[in-house]
């Protein structure tokens, strides 16, 4: 089974399809996964692998490790486009998330003032005021909405029972155009049921959700690495481009496509 890929708190830099040369920050355990989603496509694997033994890194540990890496990169004259919070689960679940963002902004300003700070979040913690305030401070507040149809979300993302996509849409809209919405497009089967968020009905529902959220940008992408559900398939680039063009022409938002 596909399992955790990130075994360090600060990792990379790596090349991101959507963000460029990215230094990663993993606020989850280095040997397990903690997430409020359990997505069929997650490259870090299912939550069933457990939360591991290392625990969450402390705010001080994150700051110390990030500063050391940034200082070394600056001294070596290395290129960096973005510092990205991702890793082995949902970064906003970290209890010191807001303080860590403040530390990261200060370190970025000291070592690489031109670099952007990005957070990849599944948007399940937007009801927490401290989390929302922290996300409003970053350059790229990238929030997930994989479908605007409840049954599809339940099957593809497998959120907690109290997840309400309508509430999430309203919360993303509250950022006033500062947010970037990210959508994974894929199709296949799981437990004998078809899952496919690339259909016209799915795209129509997403477009209406994007219109309501009025994000700065929409990112649509498809599978690029092994997934825990082996019956999932990547959507052809032609279909992604068709979906992107429908979004652009219908609501006029910028769309970035990775396929």
Key features of this structure:
alpha/beta; three-stranded antiparallel beta sheet; 22% strand; 259 residues; 7 helices
**Runs with pLDDT <50, length 5+?**
none
Main sheet summary:
8 strands, mixed
Q: Strand arrangement, largest sheet?
A: 1-2-3-4-5-6-9-11
Termini Cα gap = 23 Å
Strand content: 15-25%
Radius of gyration: 18 Å
Mean pLDDT: 95
Structural class: alpha/beta
Give the ordered list of helices and strands.
Answer: EEHEHEHEHHEEEHEEHE
> What's the number of helices?
7
Q: Determine the fraction of residues in helical runs and give it as a percent range.
A: 25-40%
User: Care to count the β-strands?
Assistant: 11
What sort of overall outline do the alpha carbons produce when their principal axes are compared? Answer: globular
Would you give an account of this structure?
By secondary structure, this protein is α/β, with parallel strands linked by helices. Helices cover 33% and strands 22% of the residues. The chain has helices spanning 59-76, 97-111, 129-135, 150-156, 165-173, 200-213, 237-251; strands spanning 10-16, 20-26, 82-86, 116-121, 140-144, 179-184, 186-190, 193-196, 217-221, 233-234, 254-258. The strands form 2 sheets. An 8-stranded mixed beta sheet has the order 1-2-3-4-5-6-9-11. Strand 3 (82-86), helix 2 and strand 4 (116-121) form a beta-alpha-beta unit. Helix 2 (97-111) packs parallel to helix 3 and helix 5 (165-173) crosses helix 6 (200-213). The longest helix has 18 residues, at 59-76. The chain is globular and about 50 Å long. The relative contact order is 0.14.
């Amino acid at each position: 089974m596909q399992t955790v890929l990130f075994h360090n708190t600060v990792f990379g830099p790596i090349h991101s399809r959507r963000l460029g040369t990215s230094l990663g920050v993993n606020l989850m355990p280095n040997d397990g996964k903690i997430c409020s989603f359990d997505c069929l496509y997650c490259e870090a694997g299912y939550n069933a692998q457990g939360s591991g033994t290392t625990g969450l890194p402390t705010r001080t540990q994150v700051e110390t490790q990030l500063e050391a890496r940034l200082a070394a990169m600056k001294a070596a004259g290395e290129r960096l486009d973005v510092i990205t919070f991702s890793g082995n689960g949902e970064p906003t679940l970290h209890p010191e998330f807001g303080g860590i963002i403040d530390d990261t902004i200060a370190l970025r300003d000291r070592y690489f003032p031109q670099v952007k700070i990005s957070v990849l979040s599944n948007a399940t913690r937007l009801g927490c005021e401290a989390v929302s305030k922290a996300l409003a401070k970053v350059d790229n507040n990238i929030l997930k909405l994989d479908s605007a149809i409840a049954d599809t979300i339940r099957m593809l993302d497998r959120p907690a029972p109290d997840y309400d996509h309508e509430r999430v849409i309203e919360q993303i809209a509250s950022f006033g155009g500062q947010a970037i919405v990210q959508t994974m497009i894929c199709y296949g089967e799981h437990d004998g049921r078809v899952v496919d968020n690339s259909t016209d009905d799915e795209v129509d529902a997403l477009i209406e959700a994007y219109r309501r959220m009025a994000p700065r940008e929409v990112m649509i992408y498809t599978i690029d690495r092994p997934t825990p559900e082996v019956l999932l398939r990547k959507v052809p680039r032609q279909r992604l481009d068709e979906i992107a063009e429908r979004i652009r022409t219908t609501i006029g938002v910028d769309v970035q496509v990775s396929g």
